[in-house]
């Protein structure tokens, strides 16, 4: 048998297409290209865009008449949580169940026009690779689990005097969108483990949130030493969950290159 015949998981080559009579949106000028346009797609990439009346027919390529429908470049969402299944507390789900449910979430994102999304806690490289050939979804840029300190934004363990029994070894655990790591050795280990697992960047929680019980929004989380340990040792793009000016300044002063939210500047 041919080699591909025994590898059904390998993605089939994309079909070449000609889209005719399209109204093409030009975001850079907030306008439409003049008149109906024809879009030539080969090997999964747009090769050309031009007036429909100037385009010659090609019997070897499938042609779709859009009849004046609008076409725009793919949208990009820079902050999503693909594993946060709507209507379900993600920390109550196993990874297997979460990964099964997110297939519909990713497909819905793509059908809404998002061709690239940046997941800031919860998704993994495994999901990104699955989208490349097994499931429908937008291109996925991900950080794996976000890092949070104990009692910080992202620590969903129960608050128990004397310590929660579910925190696992060495003060760290991983549930849902984030993982707990306290102290320089543990934050370094956690960051390195996420990078080893294929994270495209590292996310840390530097301030409180609005959707969690034990961290007021004005709190500052992680010490300067902990943040600098991550930003100077990992040599990777590090972004921080931070709402307030104090949290944002704390992150930037210690080498963080990106800020998520920043609503209270």
TrEMBL record:
Q: Where are the transmembrane segments?
A: none
Stored Pfam families: Amidohydro_1
What is the superkingdom listed in this entry's lineage? Eukaryota
Q: Identify the Gene3D superfamilies for this entry.
A: Metal-dependent hydrolases (3.20.20.140), Urease, subunit C, domain 1 (2.30.40.10)
The family database entries (InterPro entries) matched by this protein are listed as: Amidohydro-rel (IPR006680), Metal-dep_hydrolase_composite (IPR011059), Metal_Hydrolase (IPR032466), Metallo-dep_Hydrolase (IPR051781)
> Where do the Amidohydrolase-related domain residues begin and end?
70-263
A molecular-function term among this protein's GO annotations: hydrolase activity, acting on carbon-nitrogen (but not peptide) bonds
Name listed for the protein in its UniProt record: Amidohydrolase-related domain-containing protein
Q: Which organism is it from?
A: Roridomyces roridus
């Amino acid at each position: 048998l041919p080699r591909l015949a025994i590898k059904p998981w390998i993605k089939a080559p994309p079909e070449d297409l000609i889209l005719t009579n399209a109204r093409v949106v030009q975001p850079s000028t907030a306008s439409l290209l003049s008149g109906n346009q024809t879009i030539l797609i080969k090997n999964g990439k747009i090769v050309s865009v031009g007036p429909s009346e100037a385009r010659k027919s090609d019997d070897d390529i499938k042609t779709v008449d859009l009849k004046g429908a609008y076409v725009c470049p793919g949208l990009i969402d820079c902050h999503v949580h693909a594993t946060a299944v709507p209507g379900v507390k993600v920390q109550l789900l196993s990874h297997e169940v979460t990964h099964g449910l997110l297939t519909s979430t990713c497909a819905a994102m793509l059908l809404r026009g998002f061709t690239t999304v940046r997941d800031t806690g919860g998704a993994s490289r495994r999901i990104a690779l699955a989208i490349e050939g097994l499931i429908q979804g937008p291109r996925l840029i991900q950080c794996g689990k976000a890092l949070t300190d104990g009692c910080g934004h992202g620590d969903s363990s129960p608050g128990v005097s004397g310590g929660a029994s579910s925190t696992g070894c060495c003060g760290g655990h991983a549930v849902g969108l984030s993982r707990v790591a306290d102290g320089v050795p543990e934050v370094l280990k956690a960051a390195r483990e996420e990078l080893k697992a294929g994270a495209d960047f590292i996310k840390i929680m530097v301030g409180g949130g609005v959707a969690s019980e034990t961290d007021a929004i004005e709190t500052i989380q992680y010490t300067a030493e902990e943040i600098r340990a991550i930003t100077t040792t990992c040599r990777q793009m590090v972004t921080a969950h931070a709402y307030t000016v104090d949290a944002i300044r704390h992150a930037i002063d210690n080498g963080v290159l990106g800020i998520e939210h920043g609503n209270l500047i």
